[in-house]
Amino acid sequence: MSKKYLIETFGCQMNFHDSERMAGLLEQAGYESTEDDLDADVIVINTCSVRERAEEKLFTRLGELQHQAVEQGQRPVVAVAGCVAQQEGAAIRQRSKAVDVIIGTRSLKHLPMLVDAAVERRAVHPAAAPTLDLDPLEDVSFPLGVAKRHDPLKAYVTIIEGCNEFCAFCVVPYTRGAERMRSVADIVAEARHAVDTGAKEIQLLGQIVNHYQAPDDPTCDFADLLTRLNDIEGLDRIRFASPHPRHVTSRMIEALCDLDKVCRHLHLPVQSGSSDVLRTMRRRHTREDYLGLVSRLREAMPDIALSTDIIVGFPGESAEQFEQTLTLTEAVRYHSMFSFKYSPRPNTLALKRLPDDVTAEEKTRRIMELQSRQRRIQGELYGAAIGRTEDVLIDSRSRRRDWELSGRTSGNTVVNLSGDPSWIGRTLPVRITGANPNSLRGEAVV
Ligand code: SAH
Ligand code: SF4
Ligand code: F3S
Prior knowledge:
Helix 8 packs parallel to helix 9 (250-258) and helix 12 runs parallel beside helix 14 (360-384). Strands 2-1-3-4-5-6 form a 6-stranded parallel sheet, with helices on both faces. A 5-stranded mixed beta barrel has the order 15-16-17-19-18. Strands 7-10-11 form a 3-stranded parallel sheet, sandwiched between helices. It has 14 helices and 19 strands. The protein is α/β, with parallel strands linked by helices. A hairpin with a 6-residue loop joins strand 15 and strand 16 (404-409). The site of FE3-S4 cluster has 13 residues, from helix 1 and helix 6.
């Protein structure tokens, strides 16, 4: 009987895609997937370290597994992968005994070998110390067709790994290593393969996608990559996350305008509305640069939807500086926003140099104020969509009601509608008839 695996994923899309890759590798090695942790021979926890609370989820989960093991009299082989594994290495074992393999973000291809070895070792020596593999492998290639896609219609395609930007608050350059570009040949081959196996949408992944420069073709930058992907027959939509504001070039804006498959949505993290805070964050753009960029984008594409990430309570952020984040939010009018309370992270410049001096209560007050403004703006934008007809890629049955379908506009807003499940995978014109706080309602125009 083949052994069963379960992968639990925390963190960003990059991690979700790494989990798809690890699932594919384990299946290639003869493991079968299971959804039940009591049935699993191997549990892989793919971790995130971006904020303290994300990191703590690993230790909560390891505690649960340890507890289950005591009750069951045995426990599965446990592998910790992802950003906390890379950051903490062997120290993880000091906080929990329930770990057999610790595997860093760049050694993912070694997973089946390490897990096999751990299964054998555990059979002989149940309390053996964990295997550690934090090798900084620089090779960003990945075998074609191995990743196990979670969503049949949407395929993640990594274009850049790592990051060299070193924003003062961010742990990612330490957990993911230096920026490495994947070859354009590999990217296009993977996108074509995804489309050949049913994908309608490609989502390109990287910490700063618009920094892309093909290592195998000096003429291919991010705009050119989009152009090449736009030519793939059978592909309906191209999305990407995240671009960095300071790398949005005129060439890129032209490509967004000209290419029919590139969605009218840009996730453009701003982090703060204050140029002084942006300087201490080392974002290397000002409030004025950002607002200027938003104007240029809107001039070129009046219908483009923007979303963003914002941190409140960064060290030294005064009430006036936070106010500037509110005025920027009002000026840009984002379709959606992810907002976070600043959380000091290991190794970062902010941790070393800047005291975490905004109190927990004040961070809470600021995030609530920001979110309430965002809710109002979002409500207004969604309300204004009523009566319009939008192209919606129908991607699933609605989560709430079984007979309903769900899809997304080009601008990335969720739309629920009644319809036939055979529509899943098609892009249809939908008339918007109603708005909820986080989704729209519509009727297909057939
Ligand atoms: N590469 C992406 C961001 C990846 S991290 C970019 O530059 O846009 C995702 C988001 O988490 C960031 O945009 C930031 O808003 C948030 N974040 C990162 N580190 C954080 C920290 N220490 N505390 C709070 N939020 C943080
Ligand atoms: Fe982190 Fe900045 Fe790199 Fe984004 S660009 S991953 S926020 S260091
Ligand atoms: Fe992603 Fe979290 Fe790592 S956001 S890159 S999984 S620290």
